[in-house]
User: Fold this.
Amino acid sequence: MSAAIVDWASWALLLTGGAFGVIGGIGVVRLPDFYTRLHASSVTDTLAAYLILLGLMLQAGLTLAAGKLALIMFFLFFTSPVAAHALANTAYHDGLHPWTRRPPSQTGSKPETPPVESPAFPDKPADDAATGGPKSDS
Amino acid sequence: MIHAISLAAILFGIWLLLSGHYTPLLLGIGGLSAILAVVVAFRMDVVDHEGHPLRLGLRILAYWPWLAWQIVRANLDVSRTILSPSLPISPEAFPFRSGQQTELAQVIFANSITLTPGTVTVAEENGELVVHALTRQGADDIRSGAMDRKVTALEGRP
Assistant:
């Protein structure tokens, strides 16, 4: 009986994980530019991957295989943000400006304007210093 | 010295986990490998508090569940944004000055921002992090400073 419950829970985790993977893929197609697509792919990187690994751990039970899956999750936890940051950082230093929505009342399902030059990027130190953080070095 | 011992113990633990054979010969080889790896790491001068942050200890164990909850929440937010027919995004890049003193805590903070979907640490300039956010809500979450304070608390007071 309890084996059946574990099996169902495992399948629920695997299917939700898969669904989040598909959502991440949809996001990569729908979003307008490099930086925003990076956000979509991090859905696949984090929750989708963790849910699938958890589901597989339930399938494995209390075995060495479950420990190895946990190790995979642990390493993914540390390496995926590093990879995402490396991509974003390279684009930034290459001078790629992020897409911004120019008129806020733009209707239609898909924004069609290409990336526009935003003067706020990369550096706007003067007037953002006040709102940048709750505490400065005091 | 304490770092070398704990590094050897962790390496041996990983060996035990990955091998699955517990005969004296293989256990001996595993122990020798762990010691050899520590010797090499020692000669490379990477056995220190940064590569191997023992001092964070139990505090990081309290931080991870909170971070996990933030990741789940951010994932749901980003998924809802992606699936909305109107695609309600308002991407922006903004500078953020974090409150951490040590480099290790700054790395943990920048990694945490990147790990939560919807926000990415793009660069670090003049002590400020440049953060790109998919929605205004995601940007406001960072600007509220909740995560910044949590990570600063990890440092403790020496």
